[in-house]
Amino acid sequence: MPKLVSNSVKPSAGSILPAENPSVYEAPILHIDLDAFFASVEILDEPSLKGKPVAVGGAGARSVIASASYEARRYGVKSAMPSLLAQRMCPDLIILPGRFDRYEYYSQRFHDIINDLTPDYEPLGLDEVFCDLRSLSLLTPDPIAAAWNLKGRINDELGLLSGVGLGRNKLWAKLASKRSKPHVVKGQLIDGPGVLWVDPEMEAKWLVELPIRSLWGVGPATAAKLENLGIHFVRDLSKVGEETLAIHVGPAMARSLADYATGDDERAVEINRELKSIGHDQTFAKSIRSVEELLEIAKSHSAIVARALRSKEQVARTISVSLRFDDQSAVSRSQTLPFGVDDETAISAIVGALMETVPLKESVRLVGVHLSNFLDRSENAVQLSFDIDSGSIEGKAKVAQLSQERQVSKEALRDAVDEVRAKFGNTSLGTLSELGDEGLEIERQRGSHAFGPKDSRAT
Ligand SMILES: [Mg+2]
User: Structurally, how many domains does the chain consist of?
Assistant: First the structure.
């Protein structure tokens, strides 16, 4: 039995509610797919189309339909169908040419709403997203509630309907979102559950019933090869060994199929490379007053976020520091650089400069370092490279090659540090930022209170 049944936007009174909702560990993967996306955007922009059979696609002899409204689907019109056939099935069909700037605009707003739920998401085209909910174990302990909330926001703020699937992996989440949507039976539109979680019982049932073609990742060519081997349903996969499959579909696909046969799926949610921010926060068991200790912590946070950033092959232009004090007040400071950085020495130099502008009025409970405003490494005008192994031959060559750039970088970084002080006021009693041969070092005067005098600027 489906775990939640209702209309398309909110759980209805007659919903079959599960006795207990799954935890994020039972349903870690969410897949959301906007309904009839291109056609729906056309109807939103031109309300007179509402209730009419609308499709987006080409009108030529060899054109196909890209997206069809539910009114058009009642006539059997589907995406990827030849436009001529669609017009024959539905003579009143309104075929529009498509406006990709509008679809991109709505897609961006869709991603913004997703990002509010979690930054751990992977877009698939313009109108589908996989989310990994595991990072939200404390924030969102109930994936079904999170799914309804997400659907509700997308409907309220964008005017778009969607289907949401939850499962233990991408395979089930994607199958579930498809089955959560309305579908047409004999010209009648039948409501889907809206949100669907595939629990272990349903998995077992689907494994028996599912046609091989319905598996995400099994394209028409692979499906045809499998059908030639007598494999029509997922349940048939177990009849053929992985070795035999490998001969026909290659070893990688054979491995995946062997997984799918048991409902497993190794594919991870590939987190969006266009991240909004990367951060590291730490709350202390015992509040800290020592400036040296806080700067050491900020430095280690800088190293952690720098490493995360480099793994994305991106550089960040904006560096932020947040502090929370014992009295629960909080301060954040940020600086946007004219260039991107991905090096922990550079990041901790800016972090240090930002921290020096914060009056240390109380002991500190939390220190956070965040990076945002990303560029691809290749787009970055000024490369900062402090982490070259100058001992090796390649390293020596690289140092020579970069020495000029590095000189520019040092100056640019020094300017940025000066700008921080100018912007927030130099409340610091310490001295700042010397760029030594080994990179940038923060020196301070003995006994200084680097977070500034008590009577300093407001938080
Ligand atoms: Mg869609």
Answer: 4
Whole-number Cα distances in Å, 27 to 142, 161, 203, 204, 415? 9, 22, 12, 16, 49
The number of residues making up the chain comes to 459
Domain-embedded: residue 268:
no
| Residue 127 CA, ligand 1 centroid: distance in Å | 5
128 is catalytic: yes
- Over residues 291-322, the pLDDT tens digits come to 889 999 999 999 889 888 888 778 888 898 98
- How far does the centroid of ligand 1 lie from the alpha carbon of residue 231, in Å? 28
User: What CATH number is given to the structural domain containing 323?
Assistant: 3.30.1490.100
Residues 61 and 153 in one domain: no
Angstrom distance (rounded) from CA 273 to CA 414: 29
Q: Which CATH number fits the domain that encloses residue 192?
A: 3.30.70.270
Q: What is the pLDDT of residue 409?
A: 63
Residues lining ion ligand 1 (Cβ < 5 A) are 33-34, 37, 127
Q: What mean pLDDT do residues 187-192 have? A: 90
**Ligand 1 center to 107 CA (angstroms):** 11
Please state the rounded mean pLDDT for residues 376-403. 48
The region of weakest confidence among 17-26, 118-127, 264-273, 386-395 is 386-395
Between the CA of 46 and the centroid of ligand 1 the distance, in Å, is 20
Place of tokens 């209702």: 6
Beta bridge partners of 35: none
Do residues 432 and 353 share a domain? Answer: yes
User: What is the domain range of residue 134?
Assistant: 29-36+102-205
Contact 149, 129 (CB under 8 A): no
Q: Could you report how far apart the first and last alpha carbons of the chain are, in Å?
A: 55
Q: Which residue out of 42, 71, 122, 128 is catalytically annotated? A: 128
Rg (C-alpha) for the chain, rounded Å, is 28
